[in-house]
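Notes continue from the previous slide.

Worked example: a multi-chain complex. Inputs as given:
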Amino acid sequence: MATMTDALESLTPIGRSDTLAQKVRTQLKEAVMAGRFAPGEKLTIRSIAGALEVSLTPAREALYNLASEGVLELRPNGSVYVPELTMDRIAELTKIRIVLESLAAREAVTRASNDEIANIVALNENLIQRHEQQDYSALISLNWQFHFTLYRASRMETLVRMIESCWLMTGSYLNVIYPQFAEVSEGITNHQQIVRALERRDGDRVAAAITTDINLVSDALISSIKQTAKPEQDG
Amino acid sequence: MATMTDALESLTPIGRSDTLAQKVRTQLKEAVMAGRFAPGEKLTIRSIAGALEVSLTPAREALYNLASEGVLELRPNGSVYVPELTMDRIAELTKIRIVLESLAAREAVTRASNDEIANIVALNENLIQRHEQQDYSALISLNWQFHFTLYRASRMETLVRMIESCWLMTGSYLNVIYPQFAEVSEGITNHQQIVRALERRDGDRVAAAITTDINLVSDALISSIKQTAKPEQDG
DNA sequence: TTTGAAATTTTGATATATCATGCAACAGAA
DNA sequence: TTCTGTTGCATGATATATCAAAATTTCAAA
């Protein structure tokens, strides 16, 4: 018979609803990922507070939190901006992403439950469908879920948080690169490699495929930056 | 004769002094690194504000900033604590550190100027002296400088910031492990390897030596955690 | 002694007030 | 016109006030 203690352990903690600051942070993150802010755009405390109808305190907290994480850029005058990517920055982030995401993928291969793997496979199939339908906004979201379901299977929270930072840092450009990027069916082929290697629990191959995936995004970013940078280059 | 403009160019920009929140953050970081907070200690906004004689706003900002970075722990009730390390956490941080610091070291090998290398060599010699003198607090500081001078030579700001986060997460335990840890002369021998490989600009060897260094710290942490955990285990 | 509910205190969350700084539009002098 | 100084608004930094939730203590009844 179940004792009182067993019953207690079956209960789930009441989810305290997030603080305002956390809600603001979440909204800002989503906006960045969705590319709703233009790179270089200035975000003032008051504009955010006004738009989300909160006071300055939680707006400021969320803004500075993301800035300290590197997702937003804090300039010396104290104002916060949506960062613009440079070539150097893309190169740096790409290198960091490769080592972090390879590590997460390898660990996930070891630790993922069969259910988790099945879930990832399902996400990938869904993703292929959306790709055929050219539904890019769903594609961005599914791609995020696909990768982070994999990475979370590593059971390494800090690692996942760091990877998320990296993704957010390039987030505002995803919208810019996507229409063309998605044309390259290489990305889809490569996702298949990830899934297959994961099913075989082959760490080396998963890591290799993840690396390819990251490099594809990096290439897309570089060419999109070059395109937008060129016109202004002329004196 | 010097023109007015020449005189102007000789001036250096006024360094805007940090905001209060940044100063609080710096002090908290230093306190964590120096092990002045006990692992598990609760840090309230008001206690920090009171101790540093600032209002709640900058104290709160600094505290939450470090919490969002993972240096301090934010519990669901909103209070901030100095994190306690578990075996899993040490294992995770060690794996992350190895990939990040190896990457930084490899890049540094490519990019470091001769001056920077000379500086690192000098720091290491200083460090050896302090080791002989058993001046552990200087040792901790010099070890930090040694590693981060190397990593900063990578010219990868985001990477360095992430590595710093990792160091801070184990910071409060450095004091605990040091007296014994420093006894192991293996650490010193290994530092020599780092320096030698760096001078030869041999990326693979630098990365390997850095990895060894990280594993030594990890081993020391594990055995120190085991020691302190055992006594309380009895019911 | 133990239990548990009420009272008290602590503490976090948020709003508002205030101040200093930065920036930009504008007006007057060169 | 162009440069420079001034004025006023926008904005960040910080302090304080207020409220609500959480933790702690108190105290009386079982």
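Summary box: Chain B has two domains: 17-81, 87-229. Residues 44-46, 56, 60, 77-79 of chain B lie near DNA strand C (CB under 10 Å from a C1').
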